Amino acid sequence: MDTEAGVAVSSPARPLVVRALSVLACGWAMACGGSEAPAPPAAASSPEPWTGLMPRPASTVRRDGGFALGAGASISVPAADDGAAGVAALLAASLRPSTGFALPVISGATGTIRLERAEDAELGDEGYELSVDAAGIALRAASPEGWFHASQTLLQLLPSAALRTSPQQGPWVIGLGTIRDRPRFAWRGLMIDVARHFFTPAEVRRYVDVAARYKLNRLHLHLTDDQGWRLQIDAWPALTTKGGSTEVGGGPGGYYTKQEYAELVAYAAARFVTVVPEIDMPGHTRAALASVPELSCDGVAPPLYTGTQVGISSLCIGLPTTATFVRDVLGEVAAMTPGPYLHVGGDEAKKTSEADYAAFMTMVRAEVAARGKTLVGWEEIARSTPGNSVIAQHWLDEGLAAAAAAGGARVLLSPASRAYLDMRYDLTSPPSAGGLWAGFIDVRRAYDWDPGAVLDGVDERSIVGVEAPIWTETVATVEDMDSLVFPRLLGHAELAWSPRDGRDVDEYLVRLGRQGPRLDAMGVGYFAAPEVPWER
Ligand code: NGO
User: Fold this and answer.
1) pLDDT value at position 19?
2) Cα–Cα distance between 283 and 277 in angstroms, integer?
């Protein structure tokens, strides 16, 4: 093979590896003073031992020795593309800035990193096999999702400097071995509340980037609430011109134009993250009511709201305008969302009577179904006999969530006391943001539960997955959001992806600590929780 593309490192013994690499490295990117070149720092030269992967793969077999990616490395895709080229392009784009390598994507030839089609039923829809041997690296999958997840694992096998966006020194050594992996749950989500405080498309894209690194595949956007309406709707322009003009605390708010939303959805889709848009109804609707007087029973628009109470608003059920409004909004949101889900909220409708709630949700279900989408709602939708085609998102009331499952619904798990990223870690950290109502959630507590055992009597087959929400009543900046989301989100990603067997909280905390340099390399300002032995 072309030795410029990569070199097998044969000895498992660390001193030998280091010496071999210091010589090899002279041929590539490192500055070398002659044949007696100094050894590169040990941390940069020994292959990752594969004890830091997050989420933990289903199976790993590590063999002695390593493979060093060289300046002539290429990435090959099958001649019949099947989406591999897009994955290869993203992988190359991730590695070019740090390594300085050209990493061309080639088709129909054998590259250093090979995306290969696997006919392997065991891998399921999203699984993959990654193997590293003396000849290079093979990423085998039956779907583009599988190749993408394999490429994320490959990035974790490289030194953390590979994740930086500025030129770094290699060598880029990967241990030899094989990983076979597939997710436990199909839905692995992050929810961002962009209604209480607005976050720009660029800010949200950054969370997509990091979430996808950890194999999350859903971005649920909480787009509307009492304090703001954040998505342009052509039929009702005041929703954004007025309803998007403020936020909690009275700041300027903001909203996504249709084009910005479409770009965000496409950006996420390229990383195999499906956007789930939420229009919260019939409660949590003060921003809409303040924007459109005809939506209120008395025809008078209440003022915009910048506080943090919940349960203060309801659409006026039974008004013909309300039905038109719901039809228009769901129609436009469905049309601009290629993914299969429409989230209609349904939580805390404290100002809506039981009868009105049931009638309203019956109408909403028909509208969602008419657009060929799957309805997702908070567990309160169980109050309205939701049927078996919906997904109920559990957050507080296990009885309601179990009732939804008993009726045939699938359940998405976001138990507030484990998965709400807006809850504080402890009394004082991080210093400036976070709520208290569901209790403190330190890093251990966020991880130390089993999604298969949260709801009594509910079979694991009814559980669609795990999602961690970051509500933003107290979160106004990306810095605060980062410190609440990270590192806890990595635990939720692992609960959703990794097999239950073999889970051990203390082992997880050590592995999480090994992600520290990777989060640093990605520019993520995580909270350095004291129970984690952080590697710096
Ligand atoms: C609740 C409420 C949200 C709050 C959040 C704060 C749900 C589903 N409804 O969760 O409006 O923002 O708590 O933690």
Assistant:
1) 26
2) 16
pLDDT in tens, 336-370: 999 999 999 999 999 999 999 999 999 999 999 99
Q: Is the pLDDT of residue 76 over 90?
A: yes
Could you give phi then psi for residue 62, rounded to 5 degrees? -100, 135
Residues in the chain: 536
How far is 447 from 102, CA to CA, in rounded Å?
39
Which residue has the CA at smallest separation from atom 7 of ligand 1?
347
End-to-end CA distance of the chain: 36
Residue type, 39: A
Q: Do 319 and 285 form a contact (C-beta atoms < 8 A)?
A: no
470 Cα–ligand 1 center, Å? 9
- Number of other CB atoms surrounding residue 257 within 10 Å: 12
What is the set of active-site residues?
348
9-13, 351-355, 439-443: lowest mean pLDDT where?
9-13
Q: Are 340 and 371 in contact (CB under 8 A)?
A: no
3-state DSSP helix/strand/coil % of the chain, to nearest 5 = 35, 20, 45
Query: Tokens 């609707």 belong to which residue?
Result: 285
CA distance 476 to 460: 36
473 CB near ligand 1 (under 6 Å): yes
∠ CA 105-29-96, nearest 5°, is: 35
Give start and end residues of each alpha helix (H) in 127-222: 144-157, 201-213
pLDDT recorded at residue 3: 60
The stretch 66-74 carries a mean pLDDT of 97
- Return the axis-axis angle of helices 488-497 and 505-514, rounded to nearest 10°: 120
Pocket test for ligand 1, best of 220, 226, 347, 351 (most atoms within 8 A of CB): 347
Asked if 491 and 242 touch (Cβ cutoff 8 Å), the reply is no
Q: At 48, is the pLDDT very low, low, confident or very high (cuts 50, 70, 90)?
A: low
Q: Is the CB of 420 under 6 A from ligand 1?
A: yes
